[in-house]
Amino acid sequence: MLRFAKLGKVYKDGERIVTQGDAGECMYVVQSGKVEIMLESSERNVTLTVLKPGEFFGEMSLFTKSPRSATAVARGKAQVLTIDKKGFLKRIHQDPSLVFLMLKKLSKHIQALNSEVMRLENALAEKEIGPATVSKR
Protein backbone atom coordinates (compact mmCIF):
# COMPACT_ATOMS: atom_id res chain seq x y z
CA MET A 1 0.00 0.00 0.00
CA LEU A 2 1.16 3.50 -0.77
CA ARG A 3 0.70 6.26 1.80
CA PHE A 4 0.66 9.95 0.96
CA ALA A 5 -0.63 13.06 2.72
CA LYS A 6 -4.37 13.67 2.18
CA LEU A 7 -4.07 16.02 -0.78
CA GLY A 8 -6.23 14.20 -3.28
CA LYS A 9 -9.38 15.23 -5.10
CA VAL A 10 -12.74 14.03 -3.79
CA TYR A 11 -14.91 12.23 -6.36
CA LYS A 12 -18.66 11.61 -6.02
CA ASP A 13 -20.24 8.18 -6.40
CA GLY A 14 -20.19 7.19 -10.08
CA GLU A 15 -17.83 9.99 -11.11
CA ARG A 16 -15.19 9.02 -13.65
CA ILE A 17 -11.59 9.49 -12.61
CA VAL A 18 -10.07 8.30 -15.88
CA THR A 19 -11.64 6.96 -19.07
CA GLN A 20 -10.39 4.03 -21.13
CA GLY A 21 -8.66 5.27 -24.29
CA ASP A 22 -7.82 8.74 -22.94
CA ALA A 23 -4.22 9.95 -22.88
CA GLY A 24 -2.53 9.57 -19.53
CA GLU A 25 0.67 10.82 -17.96
CA CYS A 26 -0.01 10.26 -14.27
CA MET A 27 -0.96 7.59 -11.76
CA TYR A 28 -3.44 7.66 -8.90
CA VAL A 29 -3.50 6.52 -5.27
CA VAL A 30 -6.82 5.81 -3.54
CA GLN A 31 -6.75 7.68 -0.24
CA SER A 32 -10.29 6.94 0.96
CA GLY A 33 -13.34 5.19 -0.40
CA LYS A 34 -13.33 2.72 -3.29
CA VAL A 35 -12.51 2.94 -6.99
CA GLU A 36 -13.82 0.46 -9.56
CA ILE A 37 -11.51 -0.38 -12.47
CA MET A 38 -13.37 -1.61 -15.55
CA LEU A 39 -12.99 -2.40 -19.22
CA GLU A 40 -15.65 -0.84 -21.42
CA SER A 41 -16.95 -2.06 -24.75
CA SER A 42 -20.04 -1.38 -26.81
CA GLU A 43 -21.58 -4.66 -25.57
CA ARG A 44 -20.82 -4.45 -21.85
CA ASN A 45 -18.53 -3.28 -19.07
CA VAL A 46 -16.34 -5.76 -17.20
CA THR A 47 -15.17 -4.98 -13.67
CA LEU A 48 -11.51 -5.91 -13.25
CA THR A 49 -11.18 -4.96 -9.60
CA VAL A 50 -12.34 -2.59 -6.89
CA LEU A 51 -9.48 -0.74 -5.20
CA LYS A 52 -9.35 0.31 -1.54
CA PRO A 53 -7.34 3.01 0.26
CA GLY A 54 -3.59 2.67 -0.28
CA GLU A 55 -3.97 0.91 -3.63
CA PHE A 56 -2.99 2.57 -6.89
CA PHE A 57 -3.85 2.55 -10.60
CA GLY A 58 -2.79 4.22 -13.82
CA GLU A 59 0.89 3.48 -13.21
CA MET A 60 1.39 2.11 -16.74
CA SER A 61 1.00 5.60 -18.19
CA LEU A 62 4.04 6.82 -16.23
CA PHE A 63 6.19 4.42 -18.21
CA THR A 64 4.48 3.92 -21.56
CA LYS A 65 2.51 7.13 -22.22
CA SER A 66 -0.05 4.90 -23.94
CA PRO A 67 -3.79 5.54 -23.71
CA ARG A 68 -5.61 4.44 -20.56
CA SER A 69 -6.29 0.70 -20.72
CA ALA A 70 -9.31 0.88 -18.40
CA THR A 71 -11.83 3.25 -16.86
CA ALA A 72 -11.75 4.18 -13.16
CA VAL A 73 -14.98 5.21 -11.40
CA ALA A 74 -15.57 6.26 -7.79
CA ARG A 75 -17.81 3.82 -5.89
CA GLY A 76 -19.23 5.97 -3.16
CA LYS A 77 -17.31 9.09 -2.16
CA ALA A 78 -13.60 8.55 -2.91
CA GLN A 79 -10.53 10.70 -2.36
CA VAL A 80 -7.82 10.06 -4.95
CA LEU A 81 -4.35 11.56 -5.24
CA THR A 82 -2.90 12.28 -8.70
CA ILE A 83 0.86 11.76 -9.11
CA ASP A 84 2.69 12.86 -12.25
CA LYS A 85 6.01 11.40 -13.40
CA LYS A 86 8.09 14.13 -11.73
CA GLY A 87 6.28 13.64 -8.41
CA PHE A 88 6.59 9.87 -8.72
CA LEU A 89 10.36 10.02 -9.31
CA LYS A 90 10.75 12.43 -6.40
CA ARG A 91 8.81 10.09 -4.12
CA ILE A 92 10.85 7.07 -5.28
CA HIS A 93 14.04 8.98 -4.54
CA GLN A 94 12.75 9.68 -1.01
CA ASP A 95 11.58 6.10 -0.42
CA PRO A 96 13.05 3.48 -2.80
CA SER A 97 10.95 0.73 -1.16
CA LEU A 98 7.97 2.07 -3.14
CA VAL A 99 9.48 0.49 -6.26
CA PHE A 100 9.36 -2.89 -4.53
CA LEU A 101 5.69 -2.38 -3.61
CA MET A 102 4.83 -1.49 -7.20
CA LEU A 103 6.75 -4.46 -8.61
CA LYS A 104 4.99 -6.74 -6.15
CA LYS A 105 1.59 -5.47 -7.29
CA LEU A 106 2.52 -5.73 -10.96
CA SER A 107 3.86 -9.27 -10.46
CA LYS A 108 0.58 -10.35 -8.85
CA HIS A 109 -1.30 -8.78 -11.73
CA ILE A 110 0.80 -10.72 -14.27
CA GLN A 111 0.20 -13.97 -12.34
CA ALA A 112 -3.56 -13.33 -12.40
CA LEU A 113 -3.46 -12.62 -16.13
CA ASN A 114 -1.49 -15.81 -16.78
CA SER A 115 -4.07 -17.83 -14.83
CA GLU A 116 -6.88 -16.22 -16.79
CA VAL A 117 -5.17 -16.98 -20.12
CA MET A 118 -4.84 -20.65 -19.10
CA ARG A 119 -8.48 -20.78 -17.98
CA LEU A 120 -9.65 -19.30 -21.28
CA GLU A 121 -7.34 -21.57 -23.29
CA ASN A 122 -8.71 -24.64 -21.49
CA ALA A 123 -12.29 -23.49 -21.99
CA LEU A 124 -11.66 -22.91 -25.69
CA ALA A 125 -9.95 -26.30 -26.08
CA GLU A 126 -12.87 -28.06 -24.39
CA LYS A 127 -15.30 -26.27 -26.70
CA GLU A 128 -13.32 -27.08 -29.89
CA ILE A 129 -12.13 -30.60 -29.04
CA GLY A 130 -14.56 -31.76 -26.40
CA PRO A 131 -13.94 -32.42 -22.70
CA ALA A 132 -12.71 -36.02 -23.13
CA THR A 133 -9.65 -35.09 -25.22
CA VAL A 134 -8.34 -31.97 -23.47
CA SER A 135 -4.86 -32.59 -22.12
CA LYS A 136 -3.73 -31.02 -18.87
CA ARG A 137 -0.33 -29.36 -18.91
Characterization of the model:
The protein is an alpha+beta fold and 137 residues long. Helices cover 35% and strands 32% of the residues. The protein contains 3 helices and 6 strands; from the N terminus they run βββββαβαα. The longest helix has 33 residues, at 97-129. It is globular. The two termini are 35 Å apart.
> Tally the helices: what do you get?
3
CATH architecture of the largest domain: Sandwich
Which segments are poorly predicted (pLDDT under 50) over 5 or more consecutive residues?
Answer: 132-137
The average pLDDT score comes to: 87
Strand residue content:
25-35%
Question: Descriptors for this entry?
Answer:
137 residues, alpha+beta, Jelly Rolls, 6 strands, 32% strand, globular, disordered C terminus
Offer a concise description of the structure.
35% of the residues lie in helices and 32% in strands. It has three helices and six strands, in the order E-E-E-E-E-H-E-H-H.
Q: How do the strands and helices of this protein lay out in sequence?
A:
Layout: E1 9-11, E2 16-18, E3 26-40, E4 45-51, E5 56-57, H1 60-64, E6 71-84, H2 85-94, H3 97-129
